[in-house]
Write a structure and sequence with these properties.
The protein has 5 helices and 2 strands. It is mainly α. The protein has a domain of about 80 residues. It has a two-stranded antiparallel sheet. Helix 1 packs across helix 2.
Amino acid sequence: MVVSLTSTMPQGPRPAKTSRIELRATEDDRNLLDRAAAALGTDRSSFLLAQGRLAAQRVLADREHFVLDADAQQEWERINSRPVRSLHGLVRLLERPSPFVSPAADQPQA
């Protein structure tokens, strides 16, 4: 089971590339990227976009979705099916004025 915390982009044809991304690199880095792109039979831009997209997905993966096996899914459902508990300490904490906002900022403006 995959639980998605954000919407995912639809699969299918990609929209036209209308935005430009520029970056500076050393000559050695550029040559390395060109060699890697050539090894995959693609151009530098396509290589960088594909690899950058994969890296971004890895970085964001645990923030956007998580995967559960059948046992973990059952446990997830069990935990989320429990009745809501009233945590009096949390209620009191949330009712207190914020220490990060000055009292004047809490007042509605006229």
